[in-house]
């Protein structure tokens, strides 16, 4: 785990959303971040294709307060209807002023195209979510 050095990437209480598209023949990149009381986080995607898996995903979660709770981050992909299929939480247990960086990927989904990704950042007590924020990214290649 590393000491928190934000370099202007995340400001407490601020949210940022940016997507950089590419032509359909190329992969695209996407970025989102959000902050909630005690925690902030971001997702950076460097290889989002029209079909198949999404690779080059980096999740980062920051502990923003010395409150005895731990921040966590997770992703989700669309499921049936308006629901989401969630992946597991990645937590930072090292205390205030630290962050965790997690490289990950999403395998292909039914239908072959990951149309959207939802990122959630939470401040947690054990497995209980105390508060959270969320950002949704749409596939920039579609």
Q: Strands across the major sheet, in which order? A: 1-9-5-4-3-2
Report the β-strand fraction as a percent range: over 45%
- By CATH, the topology is Immunoglobulin-like
Structural class: mainly beta
C-alpha-based Rg, rounded? 15 Å
**Low-pLDDT segments, ≥5 res:** 3-24
Distance from first to last alpha carbon: 36 Å
Order of helices and strands: EEEEEEEEEEE
Largest sheet: 6 strands, antiparallel
Helix share, percent: under 10%
Round the mean pLDDT to the nearest integer and report it.
85
β-strand number? 11
Number of helices: 0
How would you describe what is shown here?
- This protein is mainly β and 142 residues long.
- The chain has one domain (2-138): Sandwich (Immunoglobulin-like), CATH 2.60.40.
- Helices cover 0% and strands 56% of the residues.
- It contains no helices and eleven strands.
- It has strands spanning 2-3, 16-20, 28-36, 39-48, 54-63, 70-78, 84-86, 90-91, 98-106, 116-125, 128-138.
- The protein is elongated.
- The model is unreliable at 3-24 (pLDDT under 50).
Topology overview:
Blueprint: E1 2-3, E2 16-20, E3 28-36, E4 39-48, E5 54-63, E6 70-78, E7 84-86, E8 90-91, E9 98-106, E10 116-125, E11 128-138
Antiparallel strand pairs: 1-9, 2-3, 3-4, 4-5, 5-9, 6-7, 6-8, 6-10, 10-11
Protein traits:
single chain, 5-stranded antiparallel beta sheet, 6-stranded antiparallel beta sheet, 142 residues, elongated
Short description:
Keywords: Signal. Residues 1-27 form the signal peptide. The protein is mainly beta and 142 residues long.
């Amino acid at each position: 785990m590393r000491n928190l050095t934000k370099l202007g990437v995340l400001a407490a209480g601020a949210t940022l959303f940016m997507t950089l598209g590419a032509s359909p023949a190329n992969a695209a990149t996407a970025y989102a971040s959000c902050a909630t009381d005690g925690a902030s986080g971001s997702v950076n995607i460097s290889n989002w294709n029209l079909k198949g898996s999404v690779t080059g995903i980096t999740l980062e979660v920051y502990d923003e307060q010395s409150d005895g709770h731990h921040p966590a981050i997770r992703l989700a992909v669309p499921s049936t209807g308006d629901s989401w299929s969630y992946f597991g939480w990645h937590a930072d247990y090292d205390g205030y002023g630290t962050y965790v960086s997690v490289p990950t990927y999403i395998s292909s989904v039914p239908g072959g195209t990951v149309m959207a990704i939802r990122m959630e950042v939470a401040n947690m007590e054990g497995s209980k979510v105390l508060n959270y924020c969320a950002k949704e990214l749409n596939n920039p290649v579609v």
